[in-house]
Protein: (3R)-3-hydroxyacyl-CoA dehydrogenase
Organism: Austrofundulus limnaeus
Amino acid sequence: MAATARLISRLTLVTGGGSGIGRAVCQRLASEGASVVVADISEESANETMKSLINNLRGQQHTAAVVDVSSKQSVKQLVTSIQTRYFQPPSVCVTAAGITQDDFLLNMDEEKFDRVIQVNLKGSFLVTQAVAQALVACGAPKGSIITVGSILGKVGNIGQVNYTASKGGVESLTRTAAKELSRFGIRCNCVLPGFISTPMTDQVPEKVINKVLPLVPLGRMGEAAEVADVCAFLASDDSGYITGASIEVTASN
Ligand code: NAP
């Protein structure tokens, strides 16, 4: 729940905003006063999120947009359309779009490996690059780009060689982006969620959940809103001296 209105007059973009963590981030940013562009590959789910957003705070104007983050053309079109509508680029961007296509290393086929890298890693690159280019071009004084990695990118996970590789890449991409973009006033940070209850983890078999949960000291899965809390902090000036950081949103040892 928002404690403040730290994001009044801020234009924000959230990819993967139609579901799970991305949807919770949209709701949290809007509850702090931001205008939110909810971008997702599914128009229907982006619209559903948009309808759920608080829109009565000063100057708020939300938009739902379709994007495929793995396509450079689609990402460029998205950023251009935001600038056309709002006469500015988003100064906050959260890249929550992501997919899994699991298999064991010995069986993983090339297509599954490539698709997960394209959406999770290349998608984060394309969105970070397009937003940063737009901010630099218009001389914006500050920006905050928040990528969504995963704790699994650090520790690995059986059956997810493609996903864990993509998320390790997202974290190091973010560190490099932070170093390159700090001179333009753009901060870049990565959140590393643990085991969060969303439509993505709804696919995990119950027997796996029953094995994992006893290893979590808090004894429960996290909520998407708990990841959104951290994203809102990183979006706001309360994190003004934090860049290049990875923040774990986990309850692991
Ligand atoms: P989710 O509920 O499946 O949400 C992901 C959203 O991204 C969906 O709306 C999905 O649309 C959209 N999407 C997929 N491919 C896209 C593309 N090419 N372009 C634009 N949007 C696309 O999953 P989630 O659990 O909220 O995950 C959000 C992010 O958190 C992901 O990056 C995930 O890897 C990361 N994460 C999740 C957990 C967890 O435990 N849940 C833990 C660590 C990290 P469709 O549903 O139509 O495909």
Notes: The chain has a mean pLDDT of 96. Residues 110-137 form the longest helix (28 residues). The first strand starts at residue 11 and ends at 15.
